[in-house]
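Hi team,

As requested, here is the filled-out complex form for the magnesium ion run. I kept the field names the same as last time so the parser does not choke. Let me know if anything looks off before we queue the next batch.

— J.
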Amino acid sequence: MKRVAIIIPCHNEEKNVPLIYSELQTIFAGLPNYSLIVWFINDGSVDRTLIEVENLQSKYSDIHYIDLSRSFGKEAAMYAGLVNADADLYAVMDADLQDPPSMLPEMLKNIEDGYDMVGAARVDRKGETKIRSFFSNMFYKIINKISETPIIPGARDFRIMTKQVVQSILSMTENTRFSKGIFGWVGFNAKYLPYTNVERKYGKTSWSFSNLLHYSIDGIVDFSDVPLEFVSWVGFASFVGSLLALVFIVIRALIYGDPTSGWPSMVSIFLMIGGLQLLAIGVLGRYIGRIFLEVKNRPIYIAKKIK
Ligand code: UDP
Ligand code: MG
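And here is what came back:
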C-alpha cells in the first residue's frame, strides 16, 4: 500500500474544500493499492476556509492541515505542504477543481511505469481571454528561448512526484519560488498528460493580469541571465555605432568645416542613450532586487498551526 499525500494550497476556497475532499475520497475508493493523505494549506484565507478545513479534519483521520500565519502565496504554500507531508508519493493540486482529480489514476499508473513525475498540461485555453492566451503563449516562447531550464507550455502545478523528486525540490531553498522552473530544473523522467481546461468551481481566481505579468518577469529573472547579457550587447552595439559616427563626423568637419547645426538630432541621441542606460539599470535592478531578497534568507513560510 503506497501512501499518496495530496497537497492543496487554499486561498479563499471555503466552498471548494469539502468538494475536493469528497472527490478525492471517491477516486481513492477505486484505488485499493494507494492510501490517501490530504494536506490542506490555508494560505491566509479571509473567508471560512480554515473553519471548513478544521471541520473536515475533525471528522476524517486522513486529513492534515497547515494554517499559515498570513498569505505567503501559492508557491510558499506548496513548499510548506511538501516539507511537512510524509508519504511515498506526493501530489500537488489546486483547491478549485481546475485540476481534475479524475486524472490521478492515470498519473499513478504512469508512476508505476517508471516515471518520476507525472503532471498535467492544458491543451486549450477555453474560458480565457484572447489577450491573456496571447501573452501566455509569448511568455512560454520567450522563456524557453532564453532559459536552459525547460518550461512546458500549459503545464499546471498539478502533478504526482516520487519522494526523490520532492526531496530535490525541497533542496532548492530559494525564497522566490517559480515552480514552473523548479519542476523543470530538477530533471528526472517527467511526463505530461494532456487535458482540456476546466473552469474554476466556486470563487474567483487570485491572479490578475498584472499579477501574471509580474510572475512571468520574476520567472525569467529566476531562470535566465540572458536579459543581463542582452543589455550589455545593446550597450556594446550603441558604443560601436557611436564610435563610427564620431569618426565620420570628425572627418566630415575637417573636410567641410563645422557649421553649427543638428541640435534636434543631438537631443534625440542624448535621450536615446539616457533611455538605454535606464533600461540597463532597470534590468540590473531586477537581479539585484532578487539578490537582496535571497541574502536576507527569510523563511519561505511561517506556520501558525500544523495538524
Ligand atoms: N492560492 C494560494 N495562494 C494565493 C493564490 C492562490 O494558495 O495567494 C491557491 C488557490 O486557493 C488555488 C490555487 O492556489 O487552490 C490556484 O489559484 P487560482 O485558482 O487563483 O489560480 P488559477 O487557477 O487562476 O491560475
Ligand atoms: Mg484556479
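Two things worth flagging: The pocket of uridine-5'-diphosphate (ligand 1) is lined by residues 9-11, 13, 43, 71, 73-74, 77, 94-96, 98, 200, 205-207 (CB under 6 Å). Residues 2-206 form a domain with the Spore Coat Polysaccharide Biosynthesis Protein SpsA; Chain A fold (CATH 3.90.550.10).

Thanks,
J.
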